[in-house]
Amino acid sequence: MSGFQSASRSSEGTLLEVTDLCTHFRTERGLVRAVDGVTFSIERGKALGIVGESGSGKTVLSRAIMGLLPKRGTVQSGSVRFAGQEILGLSARQMRHLWGREMSMIFQDPMSSLNPLMKVGRQITEPLKIHLDMPRDDARQTAERLLKDVRIPEAARRLNQYPHELSGGMRQRVMIAIALACGPTLLFADEPTTALDVTVQAQILDLIGEQRRDRNMSVILVTHDLGVVAGHTDEIAVMYAGRLVEKASTRELFANMKMPYTKSLLRSIPKIDEPSHTRLMTIPGRPPDLVNPPKGCRFAPRCAYARDRCHVEDPPLVAAEQPDHVYACWYPVGSPEFEERDAEILTQSVSIGATVGVET
Amino acid sequence: MAGTGKAHLRDGDLVLRVEDLVMEFPIGRTGLKVNAVSGISLDVIRGETLGLVGESGCGKSTTGRAVMQLPRPTSGSVLFEGQELTAMSGTSMREARTKMQMIFQDPISSLNPRRKVRDIVMEPLTIWKRGSAAERSTRVDAVLEDVGIDPTRAAESQPHQFSGGQCQRISIARSLVLDPTMIICDEPVSALDVSVQAQVLNLLEDLKARYGLTLIFIAHDLAVVKNISDRVAVMYLGKLCEVASSDDLYARPAHPYTKVLLDSIPVPDPEAELHHADVVGEPPSPVLPPSGCRFHPRCPRADEQCSVEEPQLRDLGGAHFVACHHPYEVPVVLTTSAATA
Predict the structure, then answer these.
(1) For residue B237, which residues of chain A lie inside 8 Å, CB to CB?
(2) pLDDT (tens digit per residue) in A234-265
(3) Cross-chain CB nearest to A359 (options B199, B261, B263)
């Protein structure tokens, strides 16, 4: 596996290439198509945001790439190339050479992801000793330096503490220190700030960005919050029902979003600069059951802009005017059909403000 | 941040008036105690939505629960519809709670997993023997329809057969059947996706109008609180920092802590200038809170006075109150109301 080491250390070019990845789970109810034909790539040192509601497949996607899914009951196809080599379907033993050293993950809940019975110091030195064969004293010093890197005060003392002695924000910093310990080239952050307060959230996101620049590391930020990805990514991929439905550079996406789904997600967030009691736009219902996804466009049953064609024909990913901007929609934002319907909706939402949205 | 003052309390048709509320929890036999809420005063006018915001551990949920006497506060007064709740017997308190209800953060675990949803919503009526069986039935169906849940499905299904958003609607229905005056919502949307969160927020606004409710809305998400509240109180480590009308607080934050909270909100716009909040670290422990103003160790504007003297809530004009020795300048625009007052 030394090939990965040398190949993954060059400073430019594509680090990860995912092509037509499908991850299906066999269940009693049938095959759950959690990830259904996803293609994207990420450059070295860049940050990609993967955005979607719960049940969109964003977490399964990141675990499938990391090789963290159970083999039993999982059907995978497609290709995942990391630093030029195929890694989909590698055994856990083979993946172990990549975990920690090449790719690592920060999870949402820092309390349940740390071992409650092990001192913080040992949890950080463990990967250093196992993956990098580092002698004990060196590992200890590296751990202390890592805690300082993630801005934990009194790093030396913290090494001898247990996770329960630390606050939520501190624990998440320890998680980041562990993830960074072996100098990975790709970091997955799966909802890294959802369990944290806003002030701490801002600090953690800044910290991840700073470490990314210092280490020329690629970051995949998985979240449901468009606000979080806006300021902290270069590119954004929007997922819905196991598919990638729109992808563009962060700037282009916010300036020129094409998918009615992306637009509706953004509109449903309460904005701090709107007056209080502003009526929120909603997306009725919830994401579809992935055992029997709807025919045609999977978002069509919830889409206020859907027409007959959307319920029958599945829209392919097509290129927008700007390079590297793709979307899957028959009547995208800006098309006459969309604008006509949107004008109706905007007038309606003002006049029938008192109706109760029924969730089906 | 001391906010032991009461300058912000009002007259008028008050549903709730809380004065000098203190909630302390002893830690074993150490003699130490957690100072969860340290002398808070609040009031809520009929039909108003009061937002309570702050970081976790600031005592916002404890305040909500102390109002419900769950458990009874260490000291202070809670007047609900003119009745002193802290002095009430257990039986009359139970009676009073029919008029004040609570909705919790995790909608799935706050519903009994073994019962049918319709029975869960029906239970408060059965306990209080309201109306005949037929009347109860009609009432439950009407409320379920108001929150957007199909009564037929509710009669056949258990909570796990519904999504998180639907379970929150069911919790809301349960809190509504007894026709309460006030509902305390403790982080009701923070476990939900943005799309569902918007549905529930709109629903709460509609129900508030339809049922003539008064709401206390506790949350850590400032954008959500602004959307639903008329008046917002910012809490830090068991104290009040700032109280103002929702729009005013967000347009002209005076307390450095409020400013920090506002600057930390992620804005869904990549062109927006990233504010790097000039606050460090996390709130200290409420076991041994800092002297003087409790925010002073993290405050960018703190000086010596702040570590010694506890600031009191004072009026900045236009019903905007702040507990700070060095607040940001707030342009007073509502001079007319200040002059008449």
Answers:
(1) none
(2) 999 999 999 999 999 999 999 999 999 999 99
(3) B199
Minimal CA–CA distance to B66: which of B26, B105, B106, B93? B93
Q: ∠B257-B260-B265 over CA atoms, to 5°? A: 135
Other beta carbons within 10 angstroms of residue A17's beta carbon come to: 16
Reference A50, options A247, A276, A293, A325; nearest CA is A247
pLDDT digits (tens, 9 = 90+) for A206-223: 889 998 999 899 999 999
- Are the CB atoms for A34 and A206 separated by under 8 Å? no
Instruction: Give CA–CA dist A79/B232, Å, rounded.
Output: 52
Considering only CB atoms, which chain B residues are within 8 Å of A284?
199
Q: What is the least distance, in Å, from the CA of A170 to any CA of chain B?
A: 9
Closest to B115 in 3D by CA, of B170, B168, B70, B164? B170
Using the 8-state DSSP alphabet, how is residue A289 labeled? P
Phi, psi at A19, each rounded to 5°: -125, 120
Tell me if B199 and A169 make a contact (CB, 8 A cut-off): no
Taking CB atoms and an 8 Å cut-off, how many pairs form between chains A and B? 151
User: In whole angstroms, what is the distance from residue B254 CA to residue B262 CA?
Assistant: 11
Please check whether residue B209 touches A, CB under 8 A.
yes
CA A288/CA B189 separation, integer angstroms:
21
Which DSSP symbol is given to B160? G
Is residue B226 within 8 A of residue A272, CB to CB? The reply is yes
> Which residues of chain A have a CB within 8 Å of the CB of B196?
286, 359
Interface contact A355-B206, CB threshold 8 A: yes
* Distance in angstroms between the alpha carbons of the first and the last residue of chain B: 25
Q: Is A1 helix (H, G, I), strand (E, B) or coil?
A: coil
- Average per-residue pLDDT for chain A: 89
B13 at interface of A, judged by CB pairs closer than 8 A: no
B50 CB near a chain A CB, below 8 Å? no
Residues 210-249, chain B, touching A (beta carbon < 8 A): 220-224, 226-230, 246-247
Q: pLDDT (tens digit, 9 = 90+) per residue, B77-135?
A: 999 999 999 999 999 999 999 999 999 988 888 899 999 999 999 999 999 999 999 99
Contacts of A286 in chain B (CB under 8 A): 163, 165, 193, 195-196
The predicted-structure confidence for B187-220, as pLDDT tens digits, reads as follows 999 888 888 899 999 999 999 999 999 999 999 8
| A94 CA: distance to closest CA in chain B (Å) | 36
Are B106 and B191 in contact, with CB atoms under 8 Å apart?
A: yes
| Residue A305 φ/ψ region, left for φ over 0, alpha for ψ in the -120 to 50 degree band, beta for the rest | alpha
Find the closest chain B residue to A288 by CA distance. Answer: B163
- Nearest-5° angle of CA B167, CA A272, CA B198? 20
The pLDDT of residue B291 is above 70: yes
Residue B107: asked if its preceding bond is cis (omega within 30°), the reply is: no
What is the DSSP secondary-structure string of B168-219?
HHHHHHHHHTT--SEEEEESTTTTS-HHHHHHHHHHHHHHHHHHT-EEEEEE
Between the CA of residue A194 and those of A16, A110, A227, A228, B208, what are the distances in Å?
Answer: 26, 10, 12, 10, 29
Is A33 in contact with A293 (CB distance < 8 Å)? yes
Residue A167 with chain B: CB contacts under 8 Å: 282
Instruction: Give me the pLDDT at residue B285, please.
Output: 83
- Judging contacts by C-beta atoms under 8 Å, the chain A residues touching residue B148 are 356-359
**Structure tokens that stand for A45 in this block:** 């040192």
Residues of chain B contacting A197 with CB distance shorter than 8 Å:
55-56, 220, 282
- Distance (Å, rounded) from C-alpha B102 to C-alpha B213? 12
DSSP secondary structure, B84-117, as one string: ESTT--HHHHHHHHTTEEEE-S-TTTTS-TTS-H
